[in-house]
Each structure stands twice: as C-alpha cells, then as structure tokens.
Amino acid sequence: MRRHPFITFLLVMLCLVGALVGFIQSPHFASVLKRVIARYLPKDGGISGDFKELAIQVFPPGIAVIEPQIEAQQKNFLGLPPRTKIKAKRVELNFTPLQILSGKAQVHKILIQEGTVDLSLQKTEKVTKINRKLIDWNDLLQIRADSIEIRDSLLNVSFALGTNDAAYLRFKAERLLMNQT
Description:
Blueprint: H1 5-24, H2 27-40, E1 47-50, E2 53-57, E3 62-66, E4 69-72, E5 85-95, E6 104-121, H3 137-140, E7 142-160, E8 166-179
Parallel strand pairs: 6-7
Antiparallel strand pairs: 1-4, 2-3, 3-5, 4-5, 5-6, 7-8
C-alpha cells in the first residue's frame, strides 16, 4: 500500500483551518473576545461598544463585525468626533493581510451596511501632544482607511456653528463612498 504523506498533510491542514475559521465565527468566540477586549483595552480609550459576532471574509480579505454598536467619547484613540454613534447590521473591514504584520493596518475600505451613523461636528482646539515616556495606544495601534462606504443607512450630522447656533442634516444613503486622495 502506497502512502501519500503530502496529501494527508494537506487534508489535516484543511481540516484544522476549517475548524479554526468555524470557531472564530461562532458566538462563543465573540463572547470570549468581548471579555478580552473589556479586560485589556484601556478604560480611558474613549470608545465603548458591543457586537454580536465576527465573520471572516476570504475575498476581499477582511473581517466583518455583525450588529456592532459603537459610541465615541470626547477623547478617543480612533480620532472620531465626540458623541459619534454607529449602529449597523454589519461593518466590514477590507484590508491587505500582509500589512497587518507591520503594526499599521492598511484598511482598504470600511463598509457600514444597514445602519445609523450619528456625527456631531464641532470646532476643535488644536491639541498639543504631551511628551510622555509611557507607550500610548495611539503608538501601538494605527489604522488608516483608504475609503469609507455607507450603504442603505441613515446619516445624521450636526454642525456646531457658534455658541448657540447649529445646523442639522439627516439623509438616507443608498450608497455613499468617501475616498482619500
């Protein structure tokens, strides 16, 4: 009887990868990930949120967060405007996998599907960076997105024009694409 160690190796690896992907996409892994995030991310990071589960995408490569709810505080490590709220059916992060190894994730596109985005834009004062000897989360985690796409979502934007004046925009976006140039 001839043995085929290479074919056996490929079958074992395929089964292991399939089991790993299945576990990562399970609700149990989502609950474990939530506990790890709550334990290790700094409480003063300025972002609070929740999600139902994760999904791994093969093409385009990325991660999808199912039913996320995100709220940004005054100062947050993602640089979102204060009081920003995002609630969606699905948020996808499409990226180039090899750049994750560098510590600077190059997200090609952030896709927000069937959600509500609340933005409150205000005049901000220029913030000077404090010289610290400690490592900051902004130094460890740097995410840059080339484009943001919003599909089938409600977008609420408020602008602070002065001390007592404000303007409000509310619209339904079937497809809104914003690119960096």
